[in-house]
Specification:
117 residues, mainly beta, Thrombin, subunit H, 1 helix, 8 strands, 48% strand, globular
Length: 117
Amino acid sequence: MGQTAAQAAKLLDKYGEAVTITFAGTAAFDPITGEPVTPTGGTSYTAKGYAGKYVSSDIDGAVIQANDIRLILELITQRPERGCTALVDSTTYRIMDVQSIRKSGADVVYICQLRAN
């Protein structure tokens, strides 16, 4: 983790809250028989994040809806992706989009668009 990412993590630790990001497991099939085999389990990461509402000018009703949440998330081992879930303040959300804030070619924080399940 670079110095800028460490500074962002420090601020999120102070002002943010615990967030759990879960990557779904995948169904697995035997490539020869096509029969299902034991699926791979999902992976979860707990990190600090800061959740807030979108400003009204960002809400277009299609891509960003009125109840969507913007989550600023510290770096985690695996970059969050569309379809993952985020547990924030006892509510589970789907990740609709992820943008990384970068400096000198390295990710600093992730900005996630969340929608309640």
